[in-house]
Write a structure and sequence with these properties.
The chain has about 250 residues and is an all-alpha fold. Helix content is about 75%, strand content about 0%. Bound molecules: protoporphyrin IX containing FE. Protoporphyrin IX containing FE binds next to helix 3, helix 5, helix 6 and helix 10.
């Protein structure tokens, strides 16, 4: 289910970015103020209010209890996500790529940033968590294998001593292409070689886990960012709607 959602939403986000880039080849200064431009603008803005409704439902306990009797929070989040991409697609079409006033440019930029931040938070964050979980499981397996190999080597201290010359950083680099002599296990790979390979793989995995955890920490405050910029977006949207009404609905002229 989440996989299907990820594929559809990724496609829509790519479409949104392509529509935005359309300003490089197309500009229609009067479209936004036309009847169809207006229909697209109003429909998109209404869809963009759904994420706001989601936030209110999520954070007002009485409302949340009432609404979740009919639809789960998971369903509401899916609505949030789909309307959060479809709305911006419609408003981008509404612009007719007329990016002239500072308000119009800021509104478009904020819309894109809000959508992309939601997308990153929703899919990349969970991807990081899943990768970290998988790598930790792999590390546990390797640790078990390493412990078994270490026990095997402990029973043959003379063989374990063979590893000592290869324990320094540069010695390890120099030894990498060669096999280190050791105890041959029933599986055929010498225990000393296995110990070195396992410790190398464990070090690589630990490094990968640390890197992913660092990325995850960087993105940890994404929700705060997503909320703050969506409020900036709603502020700009309100100003834009007010300006549209104040300066006249041209298609009624
Ligand atoms: C017009 C576009 C959007 C606006 C204005 C918007 C606004 C918001 C707001 C205000 C919240 C805070 C809800 C809360 O925790 O109180 C939120 C949460 C969230 N948004 Fe968006 N959003 C938009 C688009 C998107 C998109 C396109 C995605 C994903 C592809 C997305 C994913 C999320 C997720 C995963 C949360 C956290 C939900 C939770 O933990 O309950 N948003 N958004």
């Amino acid at each position: 289910m989440k996989e299907r959602e990820r594929i559809i939403v990724s496609g829509l986000v790519v479409l949104l970015l392509l529509f935005w880039l359309g300003f490089l080849v197309h500009r229609s200064p009067r479209f936004a103020g036309s009847l169809w431009g207006g229909v697209l603008g109003v429909s998109g803005a209404l869809l963009m209010l759904v994420p706001l409704a989601y936030m209110i439902v999520k954070r007002v306990p009485l409302l949340r209890r009432t609404v979740t009797r009919r639809a789960s929070m998971r369903t509401l989040l899916a609505w949030h996500i789909y309307t959060g991409v479809l709305g911006p697609i419609l408003v981008l079409l509404h612009t007719g790529h007329k990016f002239q006033s500072p308000l119009g440019i800021a509104l478009t930029a904020m819309t894109l940033i809000v959508v992309v931040s939601g997308f990153v938070g929703r899919y990349l964050m969970s991807q990081f968590s899943q990768t970290i979980r998988e790598k930790k499981e792999m590390l546990t397996q390797l640790e078990l294998a390493y412990r078994a190999t270490a026990t095997e080597l402990a029973e043959h201290p003379d063989q374990a001593a063979m590893l000592r010359p290869w324990s320094g950083f540069f010695a390890r680099l120099a030894a990498a292409p060669f096999a280190i002599p050791g105890v041959t296990s029933p599986g055929g790979i010498p225990a000393a070689v296995r110990a070195v390979r396992l410790s190398d793989s464990m070090a690589d995995l630990e490094y990968a886990i640390k890197t992913h955890e660092t990325f995850k920490r960087w993105f940890a405050s994404w929700l705060k960012f997503h909320i703050v910029i969506s409020f900036v977006l709603y502020g700009l949207l309100a100003l834009h709607v007010w300006a549209g009404i104040y300066f006249g609905l041209r298609w009624f002229e």
